[in-house]
């Protein structure tokens, strides 16, 4: 049986002893990542796997601030093939939009295929470090999700803050080793927090273990 959760748009069900998270499929009958499907009351749901998505891992770790909702505009930096972005597309619905930026042509080829089927996803082959390249192609957004695993990831985020509406929310995933493999992860996270604090209010930090090792999800708000 599918049940609602405290997170709007996120559902749950049991498969044996495993509790699964689901979203309602915006494109019933069509999936792109071999995700498990569940059907009930003429609705189709897709399993959102915390082992494949840092946002799903944050939800599985019971993050307190989860703001994504119907009709939101989202800028997703580091969208890759579009796995997590496709679930964000389910959450914001057909009147929302997810701008999906990635620098790697190989993954963007797959991303284009997903976006062709999901009208609320817009693919952008671009370097998130140079937002001037896509300024004309996006509208102000309610939420920024960043998962670029890049040494300069704080600077990348700050350069993209121009797109975020006042009081908008940021989900910022940090992989300690991508920033500095010589420092202890906790030191890297402290340094990142100091940098973020100058421009953003930190609402929450979610350690993504055991789903991702040495990853922290920072949830922040534009001041
Ligand atoms: C860990 S993967 C993202 C996975 C994705 N968020 C998901 O959950 O489905 C990181 C992605 O960041 C992209 N990336 C790295 N540097 C980037 C940059 N400067 N601009 C845009 N994308 C970048 C990589 O090409 C890669 O696809």
In order across it, which strands form the biggest sheet?
8-7-6-9-10-12-11
Q: Assign the CATH superfamily of the largest domain.
A: Vaccinia Virus protein VP39
CATH architecture of the largest domain: 3-Layer(aba) Sandwich
- The third-level CATH topology of the largest domain is Rossmann fold
Compute the CA-based radius of gyration.
17 Å
Task: Enumerate how many helices there are, as a single number.
Answer: 6
Number of strands: 12
Q: In which range does the helix fraction lie? A: 10-25%
Name the helix and strand elements from N-terminus to C-terminus, one letter apiece. EEEEEHEHEHEEHEHHEE
Per DSSP, what share of the residues sits in E-state strands of 2 or more residues?
A: 25-35%
- Separation of the first and last Cα atoms: 41 Å
Q: So what's the CATH class of the largest domain?
A: Alpha Beta
Structural class: alpha/beta
Structure description:
The strands form two sheets. The chain has a seven-stranded mixed sheet, sandwiched between helices. A five-stranded antiparallel sheet has the order 1-2-3-5-4. A hairpin with a 2-residue loop joins strand 4 and strand 5. The mean pLDDT is 96. Helices cover 25% and strands 33% of the residues. By secondary structure, the chain is of the alpha/beta class. The chain folds into two domains: 3-49, Phosphorylase Kinase, domain 1 (2-Layer Sandwich); 55-222, 3-Layer(aba) Sandwich (Rossmann fold). The radius of gyration is 17 Å and the shape is globular. The longest helix has 13 residues, at 105-117. It is built from six helices and twelve strands. S-adenosylmethionine (SAM) binds next to helix 2 and strand 7.
